[in-house]
## 1
Amino acid sequence: MKAPVVKQVTVRLPLNLWRTVKARAASEGRTLQAILTDVLATYLVLPTVQTAERALILRAQSIHGNNTTAIAKDVGLSRRTIYRRLKTIPQTVGGD
C-alpha cells in the first residue's frame, strides 16, 4: 500500500504569529504542523452560500448595470430570482 501524497504549501506568516505558533507548539508538545492547522483554520473563514451569491450578483451588476437579463444569464439564476435578490441587497448611492 502506497503512502498518501501530501502537498506542501508555503505560507508566510507575520513574525509575531510565527512566534506564537512556535511557543504554543512547545508548550502543548504538539507539532508545528498541527498547531498551524488549528491557527489557520481559525483565521480562514469560508463565505456562506448567501454571501458568495451576493458577491457574484454584485459583480455581475457592476459589469452589466441594471440589465437583469444579462445578470441572470451571467450568474445562472432566473430573472425573477435576480429581482428578489437585488431587493434584499442594500443599494449604495454613488458620489463623493
## 2
Amino acid sequence: MPAIDDNGFYLSESRAIMQYLANAYGKNDSVYPKHPKEKALVDHRLYFDLHFLQHEFGENYVIHNAFTILTCLIAPGEDFSIVK
C-alpha cells in the first residue's frame, strides 16, 4: 500500500498522496490546477480507473479465482449448493 511520511504527516492511498504532494510542493498549478473546472478534469482522470478498470479486474480476476479456490476446497461429490 502506498504511504508517505512528510515530516510526521502520514498519508496513504496513492491518489491522496499525489494530490497532497501537488498541493504542498507544486511550484505552480501546471500539474494540479487551482481553478475548479480545470482541477475537476484532473480529478476525473485520477479516479477514472476506480469504476472502469478496478471493476473489470474484480469481475474477471478476483471473482473467477475465488470460485476456483472454493471449488478446490470442496471434495469431489460434495454438495456445491454451499457455493452461492
